[in-house]
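Hi F.,

I've been meaning to write this up properly since the lab meeting, where we talked about keeping a consistent format for the predictions we share between groups. The idea is simple: the sequence comes first, exactly as it goes in, then the structure tokens exactly as they come out, then a line or two of notes. No screenshots and no reformatting. I'm using this chain as the first example so we have something concrete to point to.
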Amino acid sequence: MQPQPLPLDGITVVAVEQAVSAPFATRQLADLGARVIKIERTDGGDFARGYDTAAAGLASHFVWCNRGKESVALDLKDPRGLDVVRRLVAGADVFVQNLAHGAAARLGLDAATLCAAHPRLVAVDISGYGPSGPYAGKRAYDMLVQCEVGLVSVTGTPDLPVKAGIPAADIAAAMYAFSGVLAALVRRGTTGRGGPVEVSMLDALAEWMGHPLHHVMHGGTPPARTGLAHAVIAPYDAFPTADGGRVLLSVQNDREWRRLAQQVLFRPESADDPAFATNPARVANRERTDALVAKSLGTLDADEAVARLENAGIACARLRDVREVAEHPQLAARDRWRQVGSPAGPLRAMLPPITLPGGEESHMGAVPGLGEHTEAVLRGLGLTEGDVAELLRDGVAR
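Output, unedited:
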């Protein structure tokens, strides 16, 4: 039986995008088979290209967010460059932009304007704080939004709030933009009309703050920062092992505590000790509880500790660094790694998390060079060789 085609095969996406939020959203669409035409500046392109040189001379952010796309470099301040984008949009199914506040509207590339002109188009505006309100015009970098939405206040140690180690606000906005596009395409399939999709980084990350936010709004106290520990469960933390590793374990109920005491700590008397027998008691005596666990696990290497915990039915994990994740045995066993092309040669990349059994494998195209597809896309619009040469000569295209 022939595998089913990718679900977005035949869908064309045009994106005027930069940094992470919009590029990561459109990469998901490309992975599922859409043709994604990425519009970049002629003077250096998407500024994420310059963040670092860690990926064989290319920027790691750009490699992560932009595989499988066609790069077209245009000067949108020149009417001829803007006309090319408008012609591309006229033949597209989806348009995505995350320009600075007001920039897309000045160019006539905001979702409301485009959808009025093209009723079947799904057009996405991604912003930092939304299109209106007192914060609409504020710069919205990922760390700033993490602070505004309170993520930093619940992350870190009692003495030190810290931001998340990944661009959580960008990723949240990207994934809601991605799912918003899919929902709008489904609606178009039944109504024949596309429509605007609006996503802000603040709204997206505020939704992810759901547990602490609802806890506080409905009468609770703000969650304490507890590092790797849990504010209301014990033991729940990472503990050092004899070989220099760290193993995190989580005891969710009193039955698990008894198993931990008897089968891992070899302290059966602690199972029913009033100081430890219930979770409230263990939290009240957290230092003593954690000391018992640390003393036992500290005599084992990490593999031995994990094996003993798993044999006792205790949830646990290795505290891995990023290099170890790149060699994670579960990812290797499930064959989750592929190679993608790039201007620097083949690069290792992970298969997207969405797996469609019985269908074609996700499309993992090459990371494009700046303007790599400009001429081909211009010719595809019907421009003559003379028209293309003029745009290139005048710096309107690259």
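Notes:
The first strand starts at residue 12 and ends at 16.
DSSP finds 17 helices and eleven strands in the chain.

If this format works for you, I'll send the rest the same way.

G.
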